[in-house]
Amino acid sequence: MTYADRLHPLTVFAFYCAILVLTMTATHPVALLSLFVSAVLLRAVQIGVKRTLAGVPIALLLLLSVTAINLFLVHRGAKILFFLNGKPITLEAGLAGVFSGLMILSVILFCACMSRSLPGDRMLSLFKRRLPRLALLLRMTLGFIPRMRTRYREISDARGALGLSRGRGMLNVLRARLTDLSILLTLTLEESMDQADGMRARGYGLPGATRAVTEPRSARDAILSVGLVLLLVPALLPLFTGRGEWNWYPLDRSALVPDLFLSLSFAAGTAIAVLPILLEGKETLKWHILRSRI
Amino acid sequence: MAYLAVSDLTFTYHGSTTPALAGCSLSVREGEFLLVVGRSGCGKTTLLRSLKPALAPYGERKGSVTLDGTELDRMSPRDAASVIGFVGQDPERQTVSDTVFAEIAFGLESVGLDGTLIPGRVAEAADFLGIGRLASRKISELSGGEKQLVNLASALALNPRLLLLDEPVTRLDPPAKLRFLSAVRRINEEAGVTVILAGHDTEELFPLVDRVARMDAGRIVSVLPPRDFARSADGADVRFLPTVPRVWRSVNGTDEAPLTVREGRAWLRTVCKDPVPETEPTDAATPEKKAAALLSAKDVWFRYGRNDPDVVANLTCSLFPGEILSVLGPNGAGKTTLIKLLSGILRPVAGTVRYDGKRGLPETGRGGIAYLPQNPALLFARDRVREELDEVTEGLPDREDAISRAAARFSLEGKLDAHPYDLSGGEQTRLALAKLTLLSPRVLLLDEPTAGLDPFARAALASVLRESAAAGCAILLATHDLAFASEVSDRAELFFNGKLNACADVRRFFSENRFYTTQASRLSQGILPTATTADELIAELRKEGGDAK
Amino acid sequence: MTSVKTRVFLLAFGGVLVLFDVFLWLRGQYRLAIPLLAFCLTLPALIVFEWRRSGARELAAIAVMTGISVVGRVLFAPLPGFKPVSAVVILTGLSFGPLAGFMTGAATALLSNFFFGQGPWTAFQMLAWGAVGFLSGLFARSRLRRNPLLLLLLGVIGGALFSALTDLWTTVAATGTLLPAAYLTFLVSGLPFTLLYAVSNVLFLLLLTRPILRKTDRLKQKYGLFA
Q1: A20 Cβ partners below 8 Å, 6+ apart?
Q2: Domain chopping of chain A, boundaries
Q3: A86 near C CB under 8 A
Q4: Which residues contact residue A84 at a Cβ distance below 8 angstroms, ignoring those fewer than 6 apart?
Q5: Cα separation of A112 and C116, whole Å?
Q6: Does C218 touch chain B (CB under 8 A)?
Q7: In whole angstroms, what is the distance from residue A162 CA to residue A159 CA?
Q8: CA–CA min distance B79, chain C (Å)
Q9: What is the ipTM of this complex?
Q10: Is the dihedral angle over the CA atoms A50, A51, A54, A60 positive or is it negative?
Q11: Most buried one in B378, C136, C165, C170, CB count within 10 A?
């Protein structure tokens, strides 16, 4: 049980949307760094330190390649390191690359965290109110997928046991697989028509459909939502006013230390990302203690 | 006045020339429980669907249907959705949601019930059927029987006055069948809901229903209370009767028909005044003496994952040429796993499977082991029956001839140009078998081959299997259909706790088991102990009657 | 089918997103503006799908096609770039029309990324596969439907569009700008993959078109789907 499971999905979704918007619009190195650290911590709280660290090699690879891309493709900047094919390779481009990489990593981490806090079916319950058809389509498909996978195995087993669906050579193997896939398609299409009848029998498609109220919003949701709005306003001010926009070309070292306005704004933004860490961390700790007492 | 009145209903499917319903008339009282029997393709499904506007088939329709005095077409769609409930045959094919709660709520949401009232209504329906504890479970984790109960609950939540059930239990094993039918009975008795059920499962249903309607060629031929139905049944109709009244009807059939085993035994006592002494069943020459095993498993263990429980534990069994062996057991016991191990689809974790005395299994295909999955449609890759058969004739000298011979043997001559999916369940099973036998296998492994077949299709399947065995094929079938197993097989074994437990001659198996046995055996135990199938019992009784004369 | 309130809500929601996107664009916040633009471009189809009054069977058929293409993507995951997704989406379009094609493509991207990882790239994949499905759907009632040249063209367009849009995300994510030189470099360096996409699309289409169109045609006839 995680903390997010006890919140209304909309609250969780709003939090992650806010975090993602802030991360993808952040330009200042201080903001990027603090968001990146929050992302790593949140992931660690969710899946444990060991599994988080397991991602370090691939993250480094990504960071290096993004840096390299910037170094070799962007030739702006004053601090020239060396020339390659007559094109300047600059320090600024390199630094911009490192921070681009951190931004991408943060986005990937936050998205992974979001999928964990808000698994597929809870995510779908969000659309259900305003996009009921789309939600039902996705819901049905999600139901088909595991069934199709086992069914596919059954088909290839049954046909394989007869010596059908087995071929030698790449093209024959591919053809055999696709035959199995098309059997799967026929079978599932036929089944889905029965399923559609099951829906029609229960009045699907009548005007004025409602939605079972199963996840009422709690006081906790209200408090967190208000908190989110209160933090989001200062956090988004730089984006809307354009103040404190960071520019790598040219690099202005004096701007590296944010002024009071920016500091407060970054703090508010980071707080939005830190809040889930605290809440999830508390939950993890609580279960730890509970278990040790049992 | 009749609650539901169908008068002179004629219906022809779009693009078809022969009507599926031809002047069908029926009247049902409020609160009645009506069973509709008939061969597959006689129009049962079409009739049931014509009673539910949202499912009305696509085609040309004449005649009228009124429910509680209102013409069905005049009912508002919202009323029709909730007043008439429908549950279909395949439990896997009707659900749309992820959890049981959402599934039961689906109809309530569709008809626009106030969202705050829905959870209560869901709880009411689920609790009435005793599946309240499943509410937050995922549908995909439920057994077939549980899924079917969810489907019933989700129709029930809408508060129907008429419940239409189209072969709702043919895919379930005996315990699940009983559970579902007793739930239907409660809905009928305690809530007064009118129920119309179409199906072949007369064994369990005859004691429950008020009347039985027989359909033939798109018309209701007769509607009678079960005992009267039994008395007036003759000719092919007898096949629709459960074992007890069927035996009764074939031998005597003039006074009050017995419906349950209890009534049947009482009747049998009056017929056979002096019980035949219990003879030690002759242990018919064990096949071991006849020939060497064709396929055998020795000390086989299997589990799906390292930390999963054993599905097969230390199992040993042998299959001999020319015999039919039935592996019995409920759904989910692991019968399918056993078949997959024997066919080489799965490899044992420990132990060996030998084919023809050699370790390991043959390159499958021609002349080897053929496996018929529970759903025969898994084998169909083409758009016509003919092409389907042609897929496996490669390498045969005269392909056209082979196809027409196979089609004739499995009575598919008229269907060669049909789409495999447009065949009935029995025809699909026969097509799959035809496909398998074109590969001239030496071993046939069949998984639940009788699921969803009507009595005629079952009889046809039994004779096809016996022919193949007579030709030297070794056949193993996994089934929960005891009557079928007792009819066709030479040996029967009970799969329980990962092992095959009783390895006996089929006659001995069924005559010695008290509970896990056929209706015929239950009926005759201690009175005529040698009969295990209805046909044997009838023959025995006729002989006895003849002796007396 | 949908209530007026819901319609107003959806239009307002879409409007706000578009305005926000324009604002981001003006601010030079391409990193968010471009994925958001891709998402906004999928919105009209999603909203039209919601508003269309069409039956349970159509919905079920689209769900099955989406399921097949997701399962195909997962089954073929070990082979990079070699996926039947575009082919299935194209064939859905050819069978059931532009909207069904779009929905299958978009839903495939969204759902399969529950297995492969969600991110801003999801929006681009939704748009790429959705657009291919939509384009194919325009030929659903045409006599050219089974024309190998059309299939070839659709397969190649499918591969190219997928590369072009996903590279757009790579460019803007890595550099924060829409530097043409960088975009070009990505396109060129990704050319082998683009070719692989195109070739595999065409191959899958060659092998799948006949069986799949026969099945969907039979379904349309038997159940009166998408009539």
Answers
A1: A107, A110, A111, A114
A2: 3-125+236-293, 130-201
A3: no
A4: A72
A5: 10
A6: yes
A7: 5
A8: 18
A9: 0.93
A10: negative
A11: C136
CB-side neighbour CA atoms (13 Å) of B259:
15
DSSP 8-state code for residue B275: P
Give the A:C interface size as CB pairs under 8 Å: 173
Q: Residue B526 phi/psi, 5° resolution?
A: 80, -10
Global confidence as pTM: 0.90
Token representation of residue C204: 């899958």
Give the integer Cα–Cα distance in Å for B419 and C91. Answer: 21
* C-beta atoms of A100 and C174 within 8 A: yes
- Look at residue B546 and tell me whether its pLDDT is greater than 60: no
Q: How far apart are CA C6 and CA B542, in angstroms?
A: 74
B197, B202, B207, B212 alpha-carbon torsion, rounded to 10°: 50
Q: What does the mean pLDDT of chain B come to? A: 87
The length of chain B in residues reads: 549
Nearest CB to A192: which of C3, C60, C72?
Answer: C60
Asked if the Cβ–Cβ distance from C29 to A24 is below 8 Å, we say yes
Per the rule left: phi > 0, alpha: psi between -120 and 50, beta: everything else, B509 is alpha
Q: Does A112 touch chain C (CB under 8 A)?
A: yes
Residues of chain B found within 8 Å of residue A129, distances taken between Cβ atoms: none
Where do the structural domains in chain B lie, given as residue ranges? Answer: 4-224, 289-534
Spelled out in words, what is the top-level CATH class assigned to the domain B289-534?
Answer: alpha beta
Contact B37, B240 (CB under 8 A): yes
Nearest CA in chain B to A184: B378
Q: A203 at the B interface (CB within 8 A)?
A: yes
pLDDT given for residue B285 in this prediction: 46
In whole angstroms, how far apart are CA B91 and each of B39, B168, B176, B331? 21, 8, 12, 14
**For chain B, percent of residues with pLDDT exceeding 90:** 36
Q: Over the stretch B170-228, which tens digit does the pLDDT of each residue have? A: 888 888 999 999 999 999 999 999 999 998 888 889 999 999 999 998 999 999 999 99
Write out residues 205-234 of A within 8 Å (CB-CB) of B: 205-214
What is the reported pLDDT for C57? Answer: 92
Chains with at least 3 CB pairs less than 8 angstroms from chain B? A, C
Q: Is there a contact between A203 and B81 if contact means CB atoms under 8 Å apart?
A: yes
> How far apart (Å, rounded) are the C-alpha atoms in residues A32 and A52?
19
User: Phi and psi of B45, rounded to 5°?
Assistant: -65, -40
The letter for the amino acid at B33 is: F
Cα distance from B64 to chain A (closest Cα, Å)?
Answer: 20
Q: What is the CATH code of the structural domain delimited by C55-223?
A: 1.10.1760.20
Closest C-alpha among B276, B278, B293 to residue B503? B293
Under DSSP, the state recorded for C185 is H
Do residues A90 and A79 lie in contact, with contact meaning Cβ atoms separated by under 8 Å?
Answer: yes
Q: Where are the beta strands (DSSP E) in B94-189?
A: 162-166
How many Cβ atoms sit within 10 Å of the Cβ of residue B42?
Answer: 22
* Interchain contact, A74 vs C67, CB within 8 Å: no
Please name the residue of chain B whose CA is at the shortest distance from the CA of residue C1: B110
The CATH number of the domain covering residues in B4-224? 3.40.50.300
Among partner residues A147, A159, A212, which is closest to B105 by beta-carbon distance? Answer: A212
Contact A162 B370 (CB under 8 A): yes
Residue with tokens 């990704």: C190
pLDDT tens-digit series, residues B350-385: 998 888 877 766 665 677 888 999 889 999 988 889
Cα separation of B212 and B201, whole Å? Answer: 12
Contacts of A204 in chain B (CB under 8 A): 106, 110
Contacts of A155 in chain B (CB under 8 A): 378
Structure tokens at A228: 């989110």
Between B33 and B60, whose confidence is greater? B33
Q: Using CB atoms, pick whichever of A138, A179, A184 lies closest to residue C68.
A: A184
Pairing of strands B70-71, B59-67: antiparallel
